[in-house]
Design goal:
The protein is α/β, with parallel strands linked by helices and 256 residues long. 36% of the residues lie in helices and 23% in strands. It has 9 helices and 10 strands. It is globular.
């Protein structure tokens, strides 16, 4: 993984004081952070702390109550969900969401379709790119004409990331990619994240597997009850008393 200095770069994605409530629940309270090209940024915190909500706000599934979400200098809070994908924001889901009635190839090709809509050059190199991605994901022996149900849970999670990367996004939002995966499968996830970093994609990584997060993220922010309780590099976060109290020292951590 590359490490980068952010001092002279412009952020690709910027959240400024983003707020979201669901009735009496404050899911996001004045959340602010920036993502830079080629960076892996960790978003961690206990169950229900508001991590997935932020992905839903960035992708437009939910609208913000207040605050700004800025992509390449442009506020996108009013941009419809399909346009956000077209401008290069893609995500995976906590539980894989693939087209169950279509074969594997058709599911993957949605990533190529999005690349075409994004007017990405070199989509003629799609087959080559797909081959590299399938290898990184440990999916080379899979028959692409099989239905999605033939894939294991872990393979489905991998396929979601492959599909997302085929669209050549600017921002890749990963919602617990390693949850439920074994060590080998986790190494494929790392391969895919590495691929993204090499393409200068910014990666937002939500994950409870702390060994993974702390080893690959350059920076992290920590949520608790919708509040941002700490931000910094992994060593700072691991030593932060508020983070240890709310999350790292609790029962919901590391290998979960
Ligand atoms: N559509 C919704 N309607 C009502 N409440 C919601 C909705 N989406 C999220 N919430 C609430 O917002 C809070 C944050 O939920 P969120 O799913 O973002 O947490 P999370 O950090 O992703 O948790 P986990 O680690 O379990 O995935 C929770 O209290 C949740 O119940
Ligand atoms: Mg979640």
């Amino acid at each position: 993984m590359t490490s980068i200095s952010n001092t002279q770069k412009q952020p690709v994605l910027k959240l400024i004081n983003v707020c979201k409530r669901f009735g009496g629940v404050v899911a996001a309270n004045e959340i602010s952070f920036e993502l830079y090209a080629g960076e892996i940024f960790g978003l961690i915190g206990p169950n229900g702390s508001g991590k997935t909500t932020l992905i839903n706000l960035i992708t437009g599934i939910y609208s913000v109550d207040s605050g700004s979400i800025v992509l390449d200098g442009k506020n996108i809070v009013r941009m419809p969900i399909h346009n956000r994908a077209r401008v290069g924001i893609v995500r995976t889901f906590q539980h894989p969401r693939l087209l169950g009635r279509c074969d594997i190839r058709a599911n993957i090709s949605l990533g190529k379709d999005l690349a075409d809509k994004r007017k990405i050059p070199d989509t003629d190199k799609y087959q080559e790119r797909m081959g590299v991605l399938l290898e990184a994901a440990g999916l080379t022996n899979v028959d692409l004409s099989d239905s999605i149900e033939k894939l294991s849970y872990g393979q489905q999670k991998m396929l979601e990331i492959v599909r997302a990367l085929l669209s050549k996004p600017k921002v890749l939002l990963l919602d617990e990619p390693a949850a439920g995966l074994n060590r080998k499968e986790m190494s494929y996830i790392i391969n895919l994240i590495d691929f993204a970093v090499k393409e200068d994609i910014c990666v937002l990584l939500i994950e409870h597997a702390m060994d993974l997060v702390m080893s690959i993220c350059q920076r992290l922010t920590v949520l608790n009850f919708g509040q941002q309780i700490a931000s910094g590099i992994p060593s700072e976060i691991q030593e932060n008393p508020a983070v240890i109290k709310a999350y790292l020292g609790g029962s919901r951590n590391a290998e979960n």
